[in-house]
Amino acid sequence: GSSSLLVADHVLFGLETAEASGTEPSAAYGGAIFAVDYARVVIRSANISGNVAKHLGGGMALLYSASLDIESSSRIVHNLAEGGGGLYLGIKARVNDVGTEGPVYIEANRAASSHGGGVRLFFSSTFQGSAFMFANNHASSYGGAMSLACGASALIRTSIFEDNTAVAGGGEGGGGAVAVDATCQSGNDDGSDFVA
Predict the structure, then answer these.
(1) Alpha-carbon torsion angle 136, 130, 82, 66, nearest 10
(2) DSSP-derived 3-state class of residue 171
(3) What are phi and psi of 115, to 5 degrees?
(4) Which of 41, 123, 141, 183 is the most exposed place for a label (fewest CB within 10 A)?
């Protein structure tokens, strides 16, 4: 059984000024929202919090070319899964850069036994965006804020990574972000280097 909302097969789903919170851990993927097969999810001023998934994507999971637009002060907070505590993207899923005006909070999420406390990207998935606040996320393995592997890529601009932790390697598992066979670029709009 699954307690999350399934969005599939080229469907557009929008969540505006709403809350999806507090699911029990019955969903294997995506505690609140699970999107697959080219589905497009748009969240605006939404709060995805307190959700649990048994395996991946405590808050949300996107697979098979599904996409997510995160806009205007949305929050993905206090979610839990084995990996990708807040958000999991796999098999060509993507987060699109929509040029949000206010910060998007990805904070206090937890990967209980794997990678990516805040976000986990896998198998050619992409994450592009600006004005994100990655704070207080924790991974039991690598990538406290974000973990990228197997051809995944991220381009994050004008964002803050703060107090994220990862346990692997005696606490050296990349509290901010870790990339393995993947690409992670960051920078500020003025061209200066970004410090994670």
Answers:
(1) 160
(2) helix
(3) -95, 155
(4) 183
187 burial (CB, 10 Å; 0-12 / 13-18 / 19+) is middle
pLDDT in tens, 127-143: 999 999 999 999 999 99
Distance, in Å, from the CA atom of 74 to the CA atom of 175, rounded to the nearest integer, reads 23
Host H or E run for residue 169: helix 168-171
Amino acid at site 47? N
- Among 101-110, 113-122, 161-170, 181-190, whose mean pLDDT is lowest? 181-190
- Would you state the pLDDT for residue 26? 67
Q: Tell me, what amino acid is at 40?
A: R
Measuring CA to CA, how many Å separate 157 from each of 5, 71, 125, 183? 30, 15, 18, 14
Q: How many other CB atoms are found less than 10 A from the CB of residue 188? A: 13
What does pTM read for this prediction?
0.87
Residue 161 structure tokens? 């990574």
Residue written as tokens 């973990």? 147
Per the structure block, which two tokens stand in for 192? 């200066």
Check if the beta carbon of residue 86 is closer than 8 Å to that of residue 109: yes
Q: Tell me which DSSP letter residue 56 carries.
A: B
Partners of 12 in the β-ladder: 40
